[in-house]
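Journal club prep — side note

Before the paper discussion, L.F. wants everyone to see what a predicted structure for a comparable chain looks like in token form. Sequence:
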Amino acid sequence: MATFVLVHGAWHGGWCWRKVVPALRAAGHEVFTPTLTGLGERVHLAHAEVGLSVHIEDIVNVIEFEGLRDVMLVGHSYAGLVIAGVAGRRPELIARLIYLDAFMPEDGDSAFSLHPGARAQYESAARELGDGWAVPPPDPRLLGVVDATDLAWLEERLTPMPLRTHQERLFILDQRGPTVPAAVIRCTDFVAFSRAKDLARARGWPYHELATGHEAMITAPTELAALLSRLASS
């Protein structure tokens, strides 16, 4: 069976995969759900200099220190940038990248270059509510979560996101390795990543859809786990 490393997006933590992990493990897969620096249970490590490069290093270190090989590396939302950076650093350890309703960057991109409309909003929120460097989390209902229990669970756990994570550009440190295969999953009830199908087609990557909002790991965990298992066996 496969080894999955599931990387959460902005404002989240490794906790957000809680509904997906049991199904993947029941299918025989090994699963790791690290939390990026400054978020989730690591919120006490947040500061203004935490950026994309720190988060890439977080995941590289998990893979190296756990001795993982042939990793199915899943990145949700912002973490599309993170997994691309990891693949640039250690391509020989990655079996496949899976972009889950995520940024699909090229070298030199940042979250703000890929989603320029968010820059002014995030920078304003950081100035007003986050000491100039932290972006408060959004209302989870904007991400497609409607169940009251799920909303309460998210609202208790979402943490501010260091602004630098969205400002810092992706610079792949080692482009000498082989191209890592990739696949794309789009959550069709969320519009921010509506170009995913065209980008996947242009890059020759398999493309899949889930009829759910952006938080697929919370709103469609069974369907997501089944799709990830199929991708691992394909």
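L.F.'s comment for the group: The two ends are 12 Å apart (CA to CA). Keep this in mind when we get to the figures.
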